[in-house]
Amino acid sequence: MTILRTYVYPALHRSFVHRMVNFFSFMASSFLAGLQVRQVDLVWGTSPPIFQGVTGWALSRLKGTPFLFEVRDLWPAFAVQVGVLRQPLLIRLSEWLERFLYRHAERVMVNSPGFIQHVKEGGARQVTLVPNGSDVDMFDPQADGLEFRREHGLEGKFVALYAGAHGMSNDLEVVLEAAFLLWESPEIAFVFIGDGKEKAALMQRAAEMKLLNVVFLPPVSKNRMGQALAAADACIAILKPIPLYATVYPNKVFDYMAAGRAVVLMIDGVIREVVEGAGAGIFVSPGEGQALAHAVQELAAKPERGREMGRKGRAMVEERFDRKVIAEQLRGLIEEMKAR
């Protein structure tokens, strides 16, 4: 595998305008780099950001090869519902570009079944589902995470862990609300791992609320994520109560299940069908801090129930969402398009 790294304007956690400049800078630099590549059989573009799809489409036409357009999030629809994209003209232009790419791709690949109807309505001719999943070999469901617990003063605690981005879409103030409601249960600890634009504000809010049962930790490398999840008793997956989020297959949920940990799920829709179908966790209505507190308290009181959920979740991931299985699906799709 050859990786060509190209220039991007640095814009981490700065502003929407800076992020747009970042996206356009990569669209241009990756196009120039792609022009130098010879003997191309397939061009694969991915969104978001959707502008990478423009690069992929243009290169596929110049090189006379099929164009595979991968949709990992429904952009700009998500940006509009979250409130990040508000300018009517930009919204119309973005939606036009989205439909253009759907119509001009030989194949549209989605990572969630919840996206299929949207991309078909946008003009996609052929749609293939290659779902998100997890590398099950990274996680040992029998591990106890004692080293990680000792490192962060979590011995003897029931650990409800959130791992991932700390952004405006993640609604983590609801987790702080649940922690506040359980402040009289010192045996329960809420642990946040990760980073994001909202992390500083969340830490300040936790300090103002005097939440001694909340621990904020920096991001951990991928090869340590298995240890981090092994230290948890239950894992929280949460997004804002926005209707379109019912279409997503969040990667973190599959990692939680692969680690053999009960999932406290605050996302409705297709991912709820997976978790409840496996018996791998508890669904809590998005935005309901009191209901989250009750679910965590219930799992802390019945640890064997949580462990059973973890075992069922692991079995489901091994059967349907193991990366090795998904990689075979992707390989088959690429070879089919190349043969055409």
How is the secondary structure organized here?
Elements: H1 16-35, E1 43-47, H2 51-63, E2 67-71, H3 77-82, H4 88-104, E3 107-110, H5 116-121, E4 127-129, H6 146-151, E5 158-163, H7 173-181, E6 188-193, H8 199-208, E7 214-217, H9 225-230, E8 234-238, H10 251-258, E9 262-266, H11 270-278, E10 281-283, H12 289-301, H13 303-321, H14 323-339
Key terms for this structure?
Rossmann fold, 4-stranded parallel β-sheet, alpha/beta, 2 domains, 340 residues, 14 helices
Describe this structure in words.
The chain has helices spanning 16-35, 51-63, 77-82, 88-104, 116-121, 146-151, 173-181, 199-208, 225-230, 251-258, 270-278, 289-301, 303-321, 323-339, and strands spanning 43-47, 67-71, 107-110, 127-129, 158-163, 188-193, 214-217, 234-238, 262-266, 281-283. By secondary structure, it is of the alpha/beta class. A six-stranded parallel β-sheet has the order 7-6-5-8-9-10, sandwiched between helices. Strands 1-2-3-4 form a four-stranded parallel β-sheet. 47% of the residues lie in helices and 14% in strands. It contains 14 helices and ten strands. Helix 1 (16-35) runs parallel beside helix 2, helix 7 crosses helix 12 and helix 10 crosses helix 13. Strand 8 (234-238), helix 10 and strand 9 (262-266) form a beta-alpha-beta unit. The chain has two domains: 16-21 and 38-133 and 323-339, 3-Layer(aba) Sandwich (Rossmann fold), CATH 3.40.50.2000; 136-321, Rossmann fold.
